[in-house]
Each structure stands twice: as C-alpha cells, then as structure tokens.
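Section 4.2 – Deliverable D4.2 (structural model, holo form)

The reporting period included a commitment to supply a predicted holo structure for the target in complex with pyridoxal-5'-phosphate. Inputs used:
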Amino acid sequence: MSVIHAPQTADVLARQDPELAEILLGELDRQSTSLQLVAAENFTSPAVLAALGSPLANKYAEGYPGARHHGGCEIVDVAERLAVDRAKSLFGAEHANVQSHSGSSAVLAAYAALLRPGDTVLALGLPYGGHLTHGSPANFSGRWFDFVGYGVDAETGLIDHDQVRTLALNHRPKAIVCGSIAYPRHIDYAFFREVADEVGAYLIADAAHPIGLVAGGAAPSPVPYADVVCATTHKVLRGPRGGMILCGSELAERVDRAVFPFTQGGAQMHTIAAKAVAFGEAATPAFAVYAHQVVANARVLAAGLAGQGLVVTTGGTDTHLVTADPAPLGVDGRTARGRLAAAGIVLDCCALPHADSRGLRLGTAAVTTQGMGEREMVRIAALIAGVVRGEVESVRAREEVRDLVGGFPPYPA
Ligand SMILES: *Cc1c(COP(=O)(O)O)cnc(C)c1O
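Output (structure tokens):
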C-alpha cells in the first residue's frame, strides 16, 4: 500500500479493511498499467491526496469563513480563506466561491444566482458538445429553463458565431452560456460578451475543461469577460474532484447565497483544503510548463490521428482535447472504444457534430502529468489506429501499453 502517498492511512486500511484496501490497490494498478486518455481526468499530486485524506473531513462548516452555523470552525476558516485568496490571485478574479461540490453544482448555483425558472438561456446544443447542465431534458437545467441551442459550422466544426448572434437577437435570453465538454478550440469570450451586451443577457462561462490551461497561461481567460465563470477543479487543473465559481464583487453575495444555503449544505473542508493545495501548485512556473506541454501533446496526438486516417474535428486542437471520427477506419466510436478498452487504452465516446455515429474524445492532461511528451503521443496515435483497425490484436496492444506506461508511473514508489 505504500505506493499510495498517505502511507499511514493506507496501512490502517490494509489492516482494518483488507477488502477495501484490495479495491484501492486494484484501482491504483488499473490507473498505472493502462493508458489514461479520458479528457476530463488527471493525476492529483500526493499533497492534494494528503489533504483529501486529512481530518478536515471531520469538520462540519455550513456558511462561510467568519459566519458559520457550527462551532469550532476557526481553523478551517483559515483553510477556506486561503483557497479563496489563491483562486482569486490565480485567475485575477474579484471573488471566488470554492464550496461547489462539483462542476454541475457550480452551474446550478450560477443559474440560481442569475435566473428564475422559465427564463430563456442560450447555450451550445448537446449534440455539439454542450454539457448536461446546458439544457438536457434529463437534467434540472432542461426542466427548469427554456434552453435554446446554438451549434457549430458543418464544414469547419467551429462555433457558428452568426447563429449565436441571430438566436440571441430572436430569443432575447436572460443568460448566454459558453463552454463545452468536447469543443477542442479556444472560445472567443470577447465575442460572447459583445452579444450578451447587445441583448442585455448575463454571460456565464462554463470553463470546467480549460480552466487548468487558463491557470497555466495556455488558454485565454474568461474571467475578464463573463459575469460568472463556473469550473471544475479536477480536470486539467489537477486538483480534487470539485467545483468553483469566479465572479465580480457585485455578484459575490448572490453567488455565495446560491451555493449555500440555496443549493448545498455543509462545505467539504478536506476538499476545500485540497483545492487550496492545487491552486498553490497551479501558480508555479512548473505548472505553466505543464499546461503548455498538455497542449503541445494534444496537437501532436491530433495530427497523428489525422495522419492515421481518423477525421479530427476542426482539424486539430488548441487545448488538451481531441475529438475524432474513426469511421474511415471502418468502425464507429462505440466499437472503437470497446477495442481500445480491451487493449488498455481508456477514453470516451462523444457526440460528433453533424454525424450520425459517435466519435472518440481524448485528452492529454493525465498522460502529460505522467511525464509523456510528443514522442509518446506519436506512438499512442499509431497504437490507437492499429487497435481500432483491428490490425494489432488486443493482447499484443496490451503489452505495448504496459511497456509505454511502465516508463511513466503516475505515483513513483
Ligand atoms: C465536467 C463538466 C461539468 C461537470 O462537472 P462535474 O464535476 O462532473 O459535475 C460541467 N460543465 C462542463 C462544460 C464540463 O466539462
């Protein structure tokens, strides 16, 4: 168990609950011996894991620092203030709320702060990469608000700015949402700000994916443009699983009240402490190098996949994200994902704009944390294509994956 970086915790678990200890070890083994290309995932640092496994998990802390509903919060108040100050300084924001339990909770709170049920909201349609919280009928957003979806251009795959403006003028939304689970290019926040101003709408940037690149200076920041920025802390940003909201001072109180008490209860102080650790790490020069390497790796991976015959959406990427249609190799996304999974290559399917079948979505945040570079991306692209085509049988591919990741242990002993 000592490979997990909280040795006492792990040893205690091994002694007291071997059944669960075995599950943890099994998952650590899976993460270390297969190739992690799920675009939303990363490997947190030992320091982040230590904060998550700390006794701060015991503390009840409803409310905000200095104004809690529970006694004994004086120490955790310092932790939350530290997380807030680090987030504000990292992103140049006037206000930060670090209590959101997840990215979805952050979006729920942003809507609660700015909207009333039944309001019209303009967001990227789900077939084009919108998140469930951007108007899915299976989600509160689609049930409680009147969502209008914009799309991407059929030729270029880029967000159709003319359509965004036309829909905004026709529907007069109360809020416009920009942000996606699969869009591989930078979002033009200045353009969205301009349209929002034209129609008197709030601009909500759901930057769950690129916020880590923003922290490292490898993607433009939505903070100067959006009224409210929602984000996760566990994707490229490499922190604990959780959410965050950034906004200007004038919306601070509304946002805070929308998180607690409107949509959440007690804050998770161990997670907030881990967010503080991650913000501290993300402010270092090493993280800026990391963020730029994530993008460089994704570009090489996209070019490699295109070279192998897959159709890469928008022809490439500006971020950590690549989406591609494997159809030219003779299979759809679902079949491709299955073959890749059997070979130990872990990634997602995604909706492809203007296509009937599903595509593949990959990201380079985790493999870059492991230390992989452009050379490995070339190798990965060739391996993916070989497996998807059915040329490389899964046993041989599994061996090659083990060989590749063996040189880049996520948690070196
Ligand atoms: C990941 C993501 C979310 C949701 O985050 P969870 O922590 O899974 O709730 C919301 N919006 C976008 C754009 C995302 O990429």
